[in-house]
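How a chain folds remains the central question behind the approach discussed here. No coordinates are needed to read the tokens, only the vocabulary itself. For completeness, the protein is quoted in full, as a sequence line and a line of structure tokens:
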Amino acid sequence: MTHEQAAAVELPDFDTLADWLVEEGAMTVSPSELHGLLAGQVAAGARFDPVSLLQRIQQLFDIEPLKGEGVCKSIMQLYLATLQQFEAPDFSFELLLPDDDQPLPIRAEALGIWCSGFLSGFGLQERKGAQGLSVEGQETLRDLAQIVQISTEADTDSEEDEGDLMEVQEYVRMAALLVFSECNEPDGQAAPDENAPAPVLH
């Protein structure tokens, strides 16, 4: 069964995942950074089974083996939703960021953290690296590196600032899709670990 035929998996709720991570003692791990990291690896061609996925997360964030069933399911849901959205023909890929009712500076910071995670995740996957990208793809990665530095004044939350942030957020979303399309050929060529069994949410 292809990912298109499978039931759609939605991204986990930002706040719920944040709470799970705190319960696991991973207070410094942002859901945005976690999603960016996974998205960067998937965009570069990585695929995971449930065991290797959790091991990778624990290793990268230097956290103890995840004990809670909730956080493990949420991470698997995050991975499956990311892969499905990348492969969807309608460009439905989303970024896991704080809700729109959060202050603008918090959302801007989260977007920068997402980009940082994406670049780290992409760099971890050695299959292609930036050298395997087109000129446009390499420029896109450089743009994301600039967006990592994004910041807004703590006391600004105007409609203009809101519009600017939405514009940057949309650029990041399309940038991730571009990188994925360049590193994941539709002919089914896979990363070395794609032979692992497909993960399933229970």
